[in-house]
Write a structure and sequence with these properties.
The chain is about 55% helix and about 15% strand. The chain has about 350 residues and is α/β, with parallel strands linked by helices. It folds into 3 domains: about 150 residues, 3-Layer(aba) Sandwich (Rossmann fold); about 40 residues; about 130 residues, no CATH class. Keywords: Cell membrane, Membrane, Transmembrane, Transmembrane helix.
Length: about 350
């Protein structure tokens, strides 16, 4: 079976997530029409020399974005047959014009046997001068079929009150109703009625304020289901850590080796990072001291606690909750560190 490949250049933008979803749907539909297997190559042109000895912030951010995009694509594809590839390109080339960027994209497409490219409508690798129309024209002139994802972007300036949808309204209503019943601890008719009234008041008042983005019901249900699996897993990790700490406290030699360590977690956006940081703190023997974006500073009481931390058990579990099974396969912190050291 032949392979139907799609090239998608990426950079941070408000419409990137929607572009990934559209690209996955487009690639799978195109493969079905041709009877071929689908693949998407997400590439990040990074015009600088990549050094694993002195890695720049731009390099770390680019690799983090590619990991995030790959997780999104795997999540959107579900069980469909889709190959996802990511790559930093042009790391030894100076790029300044649309023609420069087009050249490196076309060379990559030719090397990988790709004949189609799709662009995010907000794609702007320079970060100051919109070059997408010229870039698309240059790539098309080189012989690739070029599409622009017909997706919308979020408002760049956040607003306190936004337009809402019925899905957001009912999501907030359901969450408020469930929370009320948990606090009430009863399913009597009176509690159900007062809970519904209270949830309705909350939903009417806050549905355009509390939810900052559109709600995908299916994706939300999947995340909630994965979170239900995560809770007993976290409780088990807490129980194991409690036994380890109890052993240390009761040991005559008190074998502790306190140390503060830092690492970059492969989770993105505030909620997953907060979940990971709090999970680490809830586990005896480790305490999250500081968080900046996805960079965590953790105080660990023992060497075994640090080994568990760098093994990435909690990190993988949090990625599973928010991004699905594919994201759980991203290398652990110690594996990422060993990979970097091996490139030196």
């Amino acid at each position: 079976m032949t392979e139907s490949g799609l090239l998608v250049p990426v950079a941070e933008s408000a419409s990137l997530r929607n572009t990934v979803t559209y690209a996955v749907e487009h690639a799978l539909d195109h493969a079905d029409e041709d009877g071929s297997s689908a693949s998407i190559h997400f590439v990040y042109p990074l015009p600088e020399r990549v050094s694993y000895v002195d890695r720049s912030g731009r390099t770390d951010a680019a690799e983090s974005l590619l990991d995030r995009v790959a997780s999104w694509a795997e999540e959107d594809a579900g069980d469909a047959d889709l190959t996802v590839e990511t790559a930093l390109i042009a790391t030894h080339v100076y790029l300044s014009t649309p023609g420069d960027y087009a050249d490196v994209l076309v060379r990559y497409a030719e090397r990988e046997g790709l004949d189609r490219a799709m662009f995010d409508p907000r794609y702007d690798p320079i970060g100051s001068t919109p070059l997408l129309p010229s870039l698309e024209a240059e790539v098309r002139r080189a012989g690739l079929d070029v599409d622009e994802a017909p997706v919308s972007a979020e408002q760049q300036q956040s607003q306190l009150v936004r337009s809402g949808t019925l899905t957001q309204f009912f999501t907030l209503f359901a969450a408020s109703f469930l929370f009320y019943l948990v606090l009430a601890g009863s399913l009597k008719a009176f509690e159900l009625a007062t809970g519904a009234i209270s949830a309705g008041i909350v939903a009417v008042s806050l549905w355009r304020v509390s939810l900052t983005s559109s709600v995908d019901p299916l994706r939300t249900v999947k995340r909630l289901a994965r979170f239900v699996l995560y809770v007993p897993f976290l409780l088990w990790e807490i129980a194991k850590a409690n036994f380890q700490i109890a052993y240390i406290v009761l040991h005559p030699a008190l074998p502790i080796q306190p140390k503060t360590v830092e690492f970059d977690a492969a989770v993105w956006s505030s909620l997953p990072v907060t979940t990971l940081a709090n999970s680490i703190t809830l586990t005896p023997g480790t305490l999250t001291v500081d968080v900046e974006r996805s960079h965590l500073v953790v105080h660990s009481l023992t060497a075994s606690a640090r080994e568990d931390l760098f093994a990435g058990t909690l990190e993988r579990a949090v990625r599973f909750v928010f991004y699905g099974r594919a994201a759980a396969r991203i290398p652990s912190p110690i594996e990422r560190r060993e990979s970097e050291e091996g490139e030196e």
